[in-house]
Amino acid sequence: MAAQAANVSLTTLNWPPFVGDSLDRGGFINVIVQESLAAAGYTSDVEFTAWQTALDTVKAGEKDAVVGGYYSEARAKDYLYSIPLYTVMVGVIKTPKLDISSYDSFTTLNNYKIGKVEGFVTSEAFDNYAFSQLQVFKEVDQAVAALEAGKIDLYADSLSAAREEAKKQGMDPMDLQILIPPLEEHDLYLLVSKAIPNSEELRNAFNKGLIELQASGRYEEILKEFNQ
Length: 228
What we know:
globular, single chain, alpha/beta, D-Maltodextrin-Binding Protein, domain 2
């Protein structure tokens, strides 16, 4: 069984600068996770895929854990959460084509075509609002391309992630701006499948490994290595 073996199978999405198969060692969040597991006595491997696919695969117990997910009550039914890995600011992002810089309600935002990635948690209030023109994309690159092409007006995500993808697509990343106020500040976690044997043992061992990484100073070294 996966959780009883020395190797932990991980999965996540392509979401630079945090995680991604194009990044050095899979990105700094992946390095933090894999080194924390190593400190706890595990080896690990990671597969990059669409976010909803990653969530579904781990929920079914086909892989052990998702790297870098936000917390939600709905997810807590299927996954055990680690202690926090890192904190990310999430908001609604625009290009210079849209002449607004702030909003006072979701009713105001409902006048625009908004994009998000399938399976993403933004904020409880935002995710529960029935936006009439919401478009869902499988991958971050699709959503950012749609924003640049004017197929959507706004995109809900981390500004750092959106700017990183914009740079890859040849856009000026500084053209992307977050509307005021931001939606929410989120911690990133390791989400361990409740469907695997010894899931609590794995989660607890990971937590100890992460604490060890932080106490030794290695956590800060990783952030510096990736200019975070």
